[in-house]
Amino acid sequence: MKTLNNLIYLTKGNLPSKMAHTIQIAKMAQAFSQKLKNFELVTSGDILSAIQGMSSDFQAWYGLHHKFKLIRLPIHLKIKYPFPHNYENQTFYKIAILYACLKSPSVVYTRTPAIADLLLKIGVPVLWEWHEPIPETSSSFYQAILNNKNLLGIVTTLPHLAENYIYNGLLRDRILVAPNAVDLKNFLPYQDKQLARRKLSICQEDKIVLYSGHLYEYKGIPTILETARLLPDYKFVLVGGWADDIQKVQEASRKIGLSNITLVGHVNQTELASYLYAADVLILPTSKYWDLAGATCPLKLFDYMVSRRPIVASALPTIMTVARDKQNALLAEPDDPDSFKKAILKLFENPVLANTIAECAFQEVQNFTWDNRAEQVLQFTTERLQEVDEDVVSYRTGLMKYVKQEVFSRLGNYLPSLQSSQVR
């Protein structure tokens, strides 16, 4: 039986970042590193960070409890962290692929389609994690990935995403559905509401409805603002967001005369728990008009569940795969501030219900841990490895093929410019 001896996780190159997907990557990497003797997480960096590897700042940013091998490919002389939300670097992709070929791991894991595509073309076994449906506008690109014999499989978060991949040609046994998860250690020790509020200098008497995450419109921020207008005696605390988005929300709040909105800005994963513990109610108002509303499995939902605070969430089919009305959350109509208002008031007026659903959510989320998820992924990967033709997988051959492609590609770009200069 083939064994999974080592695994390299190639990222988009943008860690650390405020993007939620990088939290998922860092947490999965930590879990993988505890179960594999040889594991590396590869991202981009500058010369100093490449020498440092995993720093204490990186650990604090993602709330990591264990150090593991973090490879920072120094494609920048000096860069300011965190990376911007739109960071993408083709040079990183190429060097990361070259690095992976030189290391010859059993499997390369990635969430980046461009990296998966290049690796598969040169014969490297890939496990691809993907949380979106295959877009119709570029289906041929994605179908080429799905049909490649070196694709071990796809890891995704929702059953209907799996059905989308099957529709696009992927065999069912090459898909693992594994919802997102939570790092329980980030929420230890438990903080009661009074302690958390003292820690954050928040008034003990305030009725706090809290949201954590980005401040994009499709995350339901307009719904929060309008709900706050309907509940002027309640304080709405928003934790997270880019500087530009924070400014937009501040301006929108002023326009409708809100004085009960507090914008905290981004906090790292080690600080997040205190804010959730300081809340009376946690809100997840994802908009049904978001293009990816049918593909979201929000990390914040699992963080909310472990905090033992009652949740009000949008009644979207994806969210309802985890949240169940009046059992572990209250569900409100998406984009309907009045519906959210009624659900919030119901929790404040009925503390028994609030405590019951909060405790139910807490008990259920104990099974949704990154360690459990990583175990599922590694078991799935080992099973899929048994079907890989060892004669097909040759890193040396693949590396030479890749180098040749790069050389000829660069020559192809160079010759026209050389000929042009000679004409002049």
Automatic annotation (TrEMBL):
GO molecular function, one term: glycosyltransferase activity
Pfam families assigned: Glycos_transf_1 (PF00534)
Keywords: Transferase
InterPro entries per UniProt: Glyco_trans_1
Gene3D superfamilies given in the database record: Glycogen Phosphorylase B (3.40.50.2000)
Domain Glycosyl transferase family: 193-359
PANTHER family: GLYCOSYLTRANSFERASE
Name of this chain's protein: Group 1 glycosyl transferase
Organism listed in the record: Gloeocapsopsis dulcis AAB1 = 1H9
